[in-house]
Amino acid sequence: MSKSFLTDLESSSKNALNKKAIINTFIDQGDLPIAEIAKEMDMSVPTITKLLGELQDEGFVVDSGKQETNGGRRPSVYGLNPEACYFVGVDIRRFRVNVALTNFKGEVIKVKHDIPFLLENTPASLDQLCVIIQTFISKVGLPKEKIKNVAINISGRVNSESGYSYSFFYFDETPMSQKIEERIGCPVSVDNDSRAMAYGEYMCATNGEKNLLFVNVSWGLGLGMILNGQLYYGRSGFSGEFGHFHAADNEVLCHCGKKGCLETEASGQAIYRMIKEKIENGSTTSLEAKYKQNTVTMEDIVAATLHDDVLAIEMVEYVASTLGKHIAGLINIFNPELVVIGGGLSMVGDYLLLPLRAAIRKYSLNLVNKDTVVRLTKLGDDVGVMGACMLARSKMLNHI
Questions:
Q1: Cross-sheet strand order for the sheet of 188-192
Q2: Where are the chain's structural domains?
């Protein structure tokens, strides 16, 4: 495949920008005939035909055959060449990593779930992450030059433009993306995990909604925002720190260094702390043995809830009501079409969703909340890794 298109993108030539617009049209709408592409882009058919010919020569676009019609001449349909290039998404959790490979059309080629990993702010943890990525890439059997971007999700403060993570692996002045890129030999980008989840849901599991809030309820608490069809970053990429609203007078010290953050009352770590306190005060739970061994994970809390552990259910409902109260405030501010609940704790399903919806109805303005659908992610545990893959493609095309 010719490198001219990607090279031209860097120079922002008119020809390259028009080609990028065609590719983005295919990403948004799927395969199309020339006439519809010309109409969508408000350009002449001959111009579109010429650009499509060049994109075919460069390997990015293919003729997908004839369009079915009710009669008359059947036009040729064009679309993305799935084999033009590939993207890797890496979704980092506290104790595991999910990794996936997608083709140019966004179709999943390979995915590996629950690779053991311990997320710590140490060189050893970074080394382990690089080994995981390198191993995955070596096993997919593709030349590295065909992998155009490896996108990595990580929690905390991330500046995706500079490639810095300020919460993990910030040992020196070298960006996290550069550190990993030098190790694995492929272009690397990094982004906040909640933002990647929002993008994954938007690209793969929505019905045309352009204003979406994605609430990531995992060990911590984060927010990704799609506003007017665009992923919202803020000035330096630090938007979405929903978990650090001052929301409680509990005097609990948050990992950010402040007290009373929403995350200390509405997150997986909040449930962990509250169950621990209840056990110390005599409450019983199926999780007691794991607490004594200090081995409780988010998956353990979810399993206990789904197996009708009364204490776990009680704590999930408390978190849901607290979270719903503050999501109500977001709905009042943003008036979104869709609020999606994802992250590890969302795996408990209605135990979380039903009390959360009740709190939203109680605390948000009726005139505003009637516009908003509140649901769980349709992508389940894959929402993060799919978001990473979609972001990897977008980084290459600057599609966001």
A1: 108-116, 96-103, 86-92, 147-154, 188-192
A2: 4-80, 86-198+384-397, 207-377
